[in-house]
Design brief:
The complex is a heterotetramer, with two copies of chain A (146 residues) and two copies of chain C (82 residues). Chain A contains four helices and eight strands. Chain A has 146 residues and is α+β, with helices and mostly antiparallel strands. Chain A has a single domain, classed as Aldehyde Oxidoreductase, domain 3, CATH 3.90.1170. In chain A, strand 7 and strand 8 form a beta hairpin. The longest helix of chain A is centred in the last third of the chain and has 18 residues. Chain A is globular and about 55 Å long. In chain C, 29% of the residues lie in helices and 24% in strands. Chain C has three helices and five strands; from the N terminus they run βαβααβββ. In chain C, strand 3 and strand 4 form a beta hairpin. Classes of the chains: A alpha+beta (146), C alpha+beta (82). At the A-B interface, helix 1, strand 2 and helix 3 of A face helix 1, strand 2 and helix 3 of B.
Chain lengths: 146, 146, 82, 82
Amino acid sequence: MSVRVQSEPFDFGAECAGFGQGGKNVGAVVTFLGVVRDDSGTLNRMEIEHYPGMTEKAIAAMVNEARNRWSLADILVIHRHGSLKPGEPIMMVATAARHRVAAFEAAEFLMDYLKSRAPFWKKEVAADGAEWVAATDNDEIALKRW
Amino acid sequence: MSVRVQSEPFDFGAECAGFGQGGKNVGAVVTFLGVVRDDSGTLNRMEIEHYPGMTEKAIAAMVNEARNRWSLADILVIHRHGSLKPGEPIMMVATAARHRVAAFEAAEFLMDYLKSRAPFWKKEVAADGAEWVAATDNDEIALKRW
Amino acid sequence: MIDILYFAWVRERIGLPKERLETDAATVAALVEELKSREDRYAVAFADTSALRVALDQELSDFSASLVGVREVAFFPPMTGG
Amino acid sequence: MIDILYFAWVRERIGLPKERLETDAATVAALVEELKSREDRYAVAFADTSALRVALDQELSDFSASLVGVREVAFFPPMTGG
């Protein structure tokens, strides 16, 4: 189990390469990568603010909850903060389990909770101004599934 | 969009490395890796038989169906056949989309269909004998979600 | 002439992966009856067709389907890919 | 003495990330009222507390919660990680 909160980029391919594949009882690995989108084509950068201390605690609590709910051989969460360019990796989640359903569900659970319960805030900085990304009702609705 | 049916191993990390990350409108990548499990600790190898010709057609049909149902920037499916050792990658699926829900759903849809609608058959060969893996009721139930 | 393919334990029970047959069977079910009457190994392989799947010209089908115009029939257990 | 932290647009509206305060406020809501009465920028930032979240000692809480024993209060908009 590993959680990293960092400003540095990470290498998604390298993180995926060996994840969860050591044990005899791992049959399924799911990974999720979040990337800075540039829908308008005018994005200069995305700035991600976070709450040092609380961030790590909140993610550790989600990871523990996932371990309680599903039988998981391994979990990896990486989330960046600071200034990111369009196309750069923001964060990733990886889960390893015996069966695909547990691996998928745990990854989606972690994503839904990271989205609206980990203290990160995104600001989109474009040529014509900066705007904080607003949380949506769907973010809260997604949590009701769990 | 890419589908590969092959006996050769593939490199999961290398496949993940650049997948779906070129475009401005990709915000989410989901990947799934299936690995040969060895629950009993006695597995010698897994033999995967397939139906050449039908396999490629069946997977292409699933990929097209996924593209119709979700807005996807990219899809990758790799499935091996032949003789595999415990711990070796069997297959992988990757999806890229604007949002995480589409990427997750499309990946799960493809997995559920690959599981019971692509013509592959697994045989577990252990020291004390060989056995064809049986399909389970859950495999069929999983399809009802879509 | 029709090509008949067998996979997984169907192939093992019948003892061959493929054969070519001249048949007048109008449906998959009729073809199965014809095969079962030939030899025991077919009777054993097709003993419970509810445990089997059939593909006609590489598309999943069912045992009541017509064989008119069909060039390739494949019999196999439920798939276990992924 | 209590540490008060502000994040995202709450930080921008108030104009600072952190301050230390001596307060007798018994609840988060009372602290918010005290802050709002100090200066306009607080009144603007806290105009609609339904758009805000609060954490007490780095755990999500709510505006009716007691401040007894609390060392660190943080105000911020709904999170947008992932």
